[in-house]
Write a structure and sequence with these properties.
Number of helices: 14
Bound molecules: pyridoxal-5'-phosphate
CATH architecture of the largest domain: 3-Layer(aba) Sandwich
Number of strands: 13
Oligomer: single chain
Helix content: 25-40%
Strand content: 5-15%
Structural class: alpha/beta
CATH topology of the largest domain: Aspartate Aminotransferase, domain 2
Shape: globular
Number of domains: 2
Length: about 425
């Protein structure tokens, strides 16, 4: 049973992240979050006690193997995978997406169609476009320039029996919008296509549930979720088994996830990731949850969401009030349909100038296209240097948002 009292103890939370002790206001969290001490401790522990090759018969090798397997199991719980061998890990979401599309390539026939959006980070577009070499036809699901949403009617029009894959982001790393992936999965499946979801901008803010998502492939990066520079790609077991191997010829086609992890996983970073689940479970326990590990994690994320929404609304309230500001995305958290990643432009100012002003006060935000280049181009925002993006994490404080707002107001007037 979950009886969580949804109020975060921010002092306790911030003490988990040693880097937060400096004077910087970290508001570029969608670029990369701060790292938990417990993650760093585990990485260090693994390196200093378990640096042996796996798979040998001597005790240390066996023990190291147990640690790396425990890491995969921990990630499986974090994402609610039905089987831990559905968990593929690798260097980054970008590289895992390239690996995925390479494993799909031999099955592509001329005329096969793939739908990508023009709101995604390029990580979930680039690999798909390379399938054109095998004759695939790329179709673009375009953002509605007025509402900044991806309309399901547009997807309906693009779907056809020739579509093999739809690639979509769970949440936009620029707009903050959360996309209805379960609905999209149902539509894609009804048309005989599969869905590949980029959840990099989603996973730091909501508890991932790969099964509930309806997706066939679901990927995100741990360095945005309080962990190391490392990433996970989950796939339904039957699908992973059907993909072509990226590993040596003598690694069997049925050996998942290894056949998709050439050179194997990074042992110490995998082990470090256990710290993420540990942390979320502890936060849930502190909030009063007495349920399963995932129920505790859910309690943690419920409290994160409430806190992050309050911080985002504090910022959005200011941005809405200033006539010179144009918010690029949904301008309120009211509908619960946005992440605390807030992009905006200032009339008559290059976005870089706004960010440079904040540098002077040790407030870390940034500007640009955030590798969602096609979105920024489609909205015609490149000339001003893209958007200014403020991306909030659960460890940020109201005082930090006030400090940002004060300096923004000074600059914008
Ligand atoms: C939405 C989104 N997808 C994918 C990526 C790429 O992740 P990685 O750096 O792990 O390749 C990012 C990185 O910023 C992102 O924001």
């Amino acid at each position: 049973m979950t009886t969580a009292e949804p109020t975060l103890n921010l002092n306790q939370i911030r003490a988990e992240f040693p880097a937060l002790n400096d004077d910087c206001v970290y508001l570029d969290n969608a670029g990369g979050s701060q790292v938990l001490r417990r993650v760093a401790d585990r990485v260090s522990d693994y390196l200093l006690t378990s640096s042996v090759q796996l798979g040998a018969s001597y005790a240390q090798s066996q023990q190291a193997g147990v640690k790396v397997l425990a890491a995969r199991q921990s990630v499986a719980t974090l994402i609610n995978a039905a089987h831990d061998d559905e968990v593929v890990m690798g260097g980054s979401t970008t590289s895992l997406m390239f690996q995925l599309t390479q494993a799909i390539l031999p099955d592509i026939r001329p005329g096969d169609e793939i739908i990508v959006t023009n709101t995604d980070h390029e990580a979930n577009i680039g690999g798909w476009t390379r399938l054109k070499t095998a004759g695939a036809v790329l179709k673009i699901w375009e953002v509605n320039p007025l509402t900044l949403a991806l309309d399901l009617q547009d997807l309906e029009r693009l779907l056809s029996p020739r579509v093999k894959w739809v690639a979509l982001t769970h949440a936009s790393n620029v707009l903050g919008t959360i996309n209805p992936v379960a609905q999209v999965a149902a539509m894609a499946h009804a048309a005989g296509a599969r869905l590949c979801v980029d959840a990099v901008a989603y996973a730091p803010h909501r508890l991932v549930d790969v099964q509930a998502s309806g997706a066939d492939i679901y990927a995100f990066s741990f360095y945005k979720v309080f962990g190391p520079h490392y990433a996970v790609l989950w796939g339904k077991r039957d699908l992973l088994l059907s993909l072509h191997s990226l590993n040596h010829f003598f690694i069997g086609e049925n050996v998942i996830p290894y056949k998709l992890q050439p050179g194997n996983v990074n042992y110490e970073l995998s082990y470090g990731c256990i710290g993420i689940s540990d942390y979320l479970t502890c936060v849930g326990t502190d909030l009063g949850s007495t349920g399963t590990a995932r129920q505790k994690m859910q309690a943690a994320f419920d409290a994160f969401e409430k806190h992050e929404d309050a911080l985002a609304e504090r910022l959005l309230t200011y941005l809405r009030s200033n006539k010179a500001v144009r918010i690029i995305g949904v301008d309120s958290t009211a509908a619960g349909a946005r992440m605390p990643t807030v992009s905006f432009m200032v009339a008559g100012q290059m976005s870089e100038a706004v960010v440079r002003h904040m540098d002077r006060f040790n407030i870390g935000i940034r500007f640009g296209d955030f590798y969602a280049r096609r979105l920024i181009d489609a909205l015609g925002l490149q000339a001003q240097g893209g958007v200014v993006r403020v991306s909030i994490a659960h460890y940020n404080t109201p005082e930090e948002i006030d400090r940002l707002v004060q300096h923004l107001d000074e600059f914008i007037g």
